[in-house]
Amino acid sequence: QKEWVVLGHPFSTRLSHVYNPEAEQSFEFLLFLDCCWQLLSQFPSSFQFTETYLTSLWDSTHITIFDTFLFDCERDRTLAENVSYD
């Protein structure tokens, strides 16, 4: 999480969770997950995570149950948490 979320990877922009005609769609996080899966398939005993974990991460980027991959930065996440719906 610290490598992608805390350092401010623009998930919302890159994964098109929010429509923006000027957004630069790029699936580099998903490509990274695919690369990890390929390596895990070749060297299963060399990693401390499983295929199930990678699949859960992949699903979490598409199904917006958790807010981990919904925002572009920590500031956006904090602002969304503080919104009141009066």
From TrEMBL:
Name used for this protein in its record: Myotubularin phosphatase domain-containing protein
InterPro entries: Myotubularin (IPR030564), Myotubularin-like_Pase_dom (IPR010569), Prot-tyrosine_phosphatase-like (IPR029021)
Pfam families for this protein: Myotub-related
Family membership noted in the UniProt record: Belongs to the protein-tyrosine phosphatase family. Non-receptor class myotubularin subfamily.
Ranges where the Myotubularin phosphatase domain occurs: 1-86
UniProt source species: Timema podura
PROSITE patterns, per database record: PPASE_MYOTUBULARIN
